[in-house]
Design brief:
Elements lengths: L4 H26 L2 H12 L6 H16 L4 H12 L8 H15 L9
Helix pairs in contact: 1-3, 1-4, 1-5
Length: 114
């Protein structure tokens, strides 16, 4: 590997690490039942769910928390951060989208706009 490429690789690895830390902190918040219910209310107009569905959703959030960052899913953000077009904190939007995909697995749907 060329010496000029080393700092770039290190910086990309640092970006990935920072994005993962921010994603994990958001997921940690959602593992608390009140925060998860607030998320469901805000994004799906869902005010109550069964205890079973709640536990399955939390189980999948824990699994997501333990998994490595999906580099394909986050690649556009990582590239934009690297090119200084976005701040690492913009990863919250990607994390939110990732969590929404998980919620939709359980039948949550976005409310229809009038």
């Amino acid at each position: 590997m060329d010496k000029d490429q080393l700092p770039k690789v290190a910086s990309v690895e640092k970006i990935i690490e920072e994005v993962k830390q921010l994603r994990d902190s958001k997921i940690q918040l959602l593992l608390r039942t009140p925060d998860l219910m607030d998320f469901l209310e805000e994004h799906y107009n869902t005010f109550a769910i069964s205890q079973v569905k709640l536990e399955f959703l939390k189980r999948d959030l824990k699994s997501l928390l333990q998994s490595p960052l999906d580099l394909v899913f986050y690649s556009a953000l990582i590239r934009q951060i690297k090119e200084s077009k976005h701040d690492v904190r913009d990863s919250f939007l990607f994390t939110e989208k990732e969590v929404k995909l998980l919620c939709e697995k359980y039948g949550f749907e976005k409310p229809k706009q009038s």
